[in-house]
């Protein structure tokens, strides 16, 4: 079996002196999708931020391609696309300007055609409108357009489907399946019902610490 792109063993995390989760093991290989599940407050966002190198308050080991993420941090970050639960876009910029700015931080991504990515998320008619004039779902779509331009082998998506309508969720499902078929690895969390063949899941409830047991 090929070595996992990202592997974590014995992860535990405390926040505000409460044990959020403990004993979390996971492995994500090329072509696989792992869905992290659990109720509000279970620690899904916290776990995804830990995996993305954005939160250091944890115990356990995380390996990127078999090596400690601490040792290969730069390589790891170059190969990661993380989209958090906020759209993370600049409201005064247009969708086109936002995409160009996002890509400037990720030189590995395809630069063209930005319009094609906006078309894929049905935002082409809004390409030149400041984002603060867009709806919540449209702003989320600006962030998700980034997925159509990404070369990074690992995607970590926190609540990527928030505010997206049913048709939008379906086309994202197909995009994620296509990505898996092309060898991409995906870790995501969402409260939406998803239909993605081959998806695996990790239930944080099985690793609950005292935070939810109170
Ligand atoms: N910045 C923070 N500082 C301190 N504690 C935090 C912080 N963010 C989250 N927490 C704690 O961690 C717990 C888990 O939060 P987290 O956002 O990881 O849960 P979640 O499973 O993603 O929830 P949801 O489904 O509501 O998005 C929260 O209940 C909160 O107590």
Please, could you describe this protein's structure?
There is one protein chain. 29% of the residues lie in helices and 25% in strands. It is an alpha/beta fold. It has a domain at 1-79 and 191-214: Rossmann fold (3-Layer(aba) Sandwich). A 5-stranded parallel β-sheet has the order 6-7-8-3-9, with helices on both faces. Helix 6 (166-181) links the parallel strand 7 (154-158) and strand 8 (185-189). The chain is globular. Bound molecules: adenosine-5'-triphosphate.
Can you describe this structure in just a few lines?
This protein is an alpha/beta fold and 214 residues long.
> Beta-strand level of the residues, as a percent range?
15-25%
Helix content: 25-40%
Q: Quote the distance from N terminus to C terminus.
A: 40 Å
Number of E strands:
9
Structural class: alpha/beta
**How large is the radius of gyration?**
17 Å
The biggest beta sheet reads: 5 strands, parallel
Residue runs with pLDDT of under 50 for 5 or more positions: none
What is the molecular shape?
globular
Enter the CATH topology name of the domain at 1-79 and 191-214. Rossmann fold
Task: Report the average pLDDT across residues.
Answer: 91
Total number of helices:
7
CATH architecture of the domain at 1-79 and 191-214: 3-Layer(aba) Sandwich
Query: Strands of the largest sheet, in order across it?
Result: 6-7-8-3-9
Sketch the topology as an H/E string, one letter per element.
Answer: EEEHEEHEHHHEHEEH
Q: What hetero molecules are in the model? A: adenosine-5'-triphosphate
CATH superfamily of the domain at 1-79 and 191-214: P-loop containing nucleotide triphosphate hydrolases
């Amino acid at each position: 079996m090929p070595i996992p792109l990202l592997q974590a063993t014995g992860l535990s995390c405390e926040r505000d002196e409460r044990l959020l989760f403990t004993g979390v093991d996971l492995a994500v290989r090329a072509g696989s999708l792992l869905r992290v599940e659990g109720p509000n407050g279970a620690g899904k966002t916290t776990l995804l931020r830990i995996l993305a190198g954005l939160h250091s308050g944890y115990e356990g080991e995380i390996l990127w391609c078999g090596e400690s993420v601490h040792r290969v941090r730069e390589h790891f970050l170059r190969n990661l696309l993380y989209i958090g639960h906020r759209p993370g876009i600049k409201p005064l910029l247009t969708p086109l300007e936002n995409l160009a700015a996002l890509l400037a931080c990720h030189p590995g991504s395809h630069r063209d055609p930005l319009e094609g990515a906006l078309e894929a998320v049905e935002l082409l008619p809004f390409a030149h409108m400041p984002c603060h004039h867009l709806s919540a779902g449209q702003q989320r779509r600006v962030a998700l357009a980034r997925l159509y331009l990404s070369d990074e082998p690992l995607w970590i998506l926190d609540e990527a489907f928030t505010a997206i309508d049913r048709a939008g969720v379906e086309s994202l499902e197909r995009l994620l399946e296509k990505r898996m078929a092309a060898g991409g690895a995906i870790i995501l969390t969402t409260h939406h019902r998803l239909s993605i063949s081959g998806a695996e899941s990790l239930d944080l409830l099985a690793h609950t610490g005292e935070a939810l047991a109170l």
